[in-house]
Write a sequence for this structure.
């Protein structure tokens, strides 16, 4: 079964509103989670690294005030798209690394199923 | 800088072998991965190879790594219609063991 869960899987919102996406590691602890954005027919772009108990590390070109990341516990990271605009419409995927090898011996990176955001 | 490139599309007949290629620029990459993404879904790790290996085989999957040419390939034997998906190669740079740099993905279409 899924080891990283994202919610919601699909969300439609009006321009100007904020949307929160949750990423949970279900049966392992993840001190670090990653948020990716996937454009249609394109690759995944790493947006930020979410660190439990501290500030997220954002990749160059990603607005930290636009994409708020909170990693309040060892199993939950949230991405909030603030004041969403149509150009924010995308597929957002999170991942978490099982660094303690609870689920695997390789420190495998497990991905969520993704959240499709549509901003009208 | 870090860059990973793949061809965008591959079409094969069911039962044939598929070979998906990937090139990368970071010679210090530690791990290289192949992920599969089915329509509307997240990514599933298929296999990975450590940078000091040349080949890894896992059932129908064979990964070949040419470090000199910075070339990675994924061979799927006896390709099935269920293998139709987008395949991403990814690398972990030496300077950040937690990051993954993805290629653009290769869309594999398996024809009956």
């Amino acid at each position: 079964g899924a080891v990283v869960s994202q919610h919601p899987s699909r969300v439609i919102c009006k321009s100007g509103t904020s949307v929160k996406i949750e990423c949970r590691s279900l049966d392992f602890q993840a001190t670090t989670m990653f948020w990716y954005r996937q454009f249609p027919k394109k690759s995944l772009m790493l947006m930020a690294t979410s660190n439990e108990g501290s500030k997220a590390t954002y990749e160059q070109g990603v607005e930290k005030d636009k994409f708020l990341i909170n990693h309040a516990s060892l199993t939950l990271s949230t991405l909030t798209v603030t004041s969403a605009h149509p150009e924010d419409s995308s597929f957002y995927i999170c991942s978490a690394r099982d660094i303690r090898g609870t689920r695997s011996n390789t420190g495998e990176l497990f991905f969520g199923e993704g959240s499709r955001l549509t901003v009208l | 800088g870090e860059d990973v490139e793949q061809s965008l599309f591959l079409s094969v007949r069911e039962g044939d072998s598929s070979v998906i290629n990937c090139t990368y620029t970071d010679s210090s990459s530690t791990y290289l991965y192949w992920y599969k993404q089915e329509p509307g879904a997240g990514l599933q790790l298929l296999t990975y190879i450590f940078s000091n290996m040349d080949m890894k085989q896992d059932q129908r999957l064979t990964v070949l790594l040419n470090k000199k040419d910075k070339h990675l390939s994924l061979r799927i034997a006896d390709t099935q219609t269920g293998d139709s998906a987008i395949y991403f190669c990814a690398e972990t740079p030496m300077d950040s063991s937690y990051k993954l740099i993805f290629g653009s993905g290769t869309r594999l279409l398996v024809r009956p």
Observations:
- The mean pLDDT of chain A is 87.
- Chain A has no helices and eleven strands.
- The interface with chain B takes residues 4, 6, 32, 34, 36, 42-46, 49, 93, 95, 97, 106, 108-114, 116 of chain A (CB under 8 Å).
- The two ends of chain A are 33 Å apart (CA to CA).
